[in-house]
Amino acid sequence: MLATLAIAFALVTATVLIHYEILRRASTMIPWLKLRRQFRVLAVIVAVLFAHILEIALYAAAYAAMHDHFGLGRLEGALSGSFSDFMYFSLTSYTTLGVGDIWPTGPMRLLTGIEALNGLVLIGWSASFTYLAMEEFWGERTW
Predict the structure, then answer these.
(1) pTM surpassing 0.85?
(2) CA distance 108 to 93
């Protein structure tokens, strides 16, 4: 259980730093893009989606590393054995969708719950960031 908590702490720290850095870079680079102001919002969306996909992949890599190793649990259910299974499970956990065709066992269950909370916070942060960008870039409508 302690090892799972350490992995969870490392993943939460890494995903928050990734999210911060991508949003920080987006906020400094996007205003300089030679796009209509309204299309800059699309660049914000692309940056946010990139951040989330990267964070989901990080959790998926952790699930793959933990799966049947070191007594940290495993994923059960409709698994084909490919990395896409871990990406799919991570995506459904991160977004709190929780389909249920793949489920964690053992200490890995704790990480799944933490990923859902982490994803919820980061998705909220992205929504707030996108709202601020829309306010800035759509403030003066020229269309």
Answers:
(1) yes
(2) 12
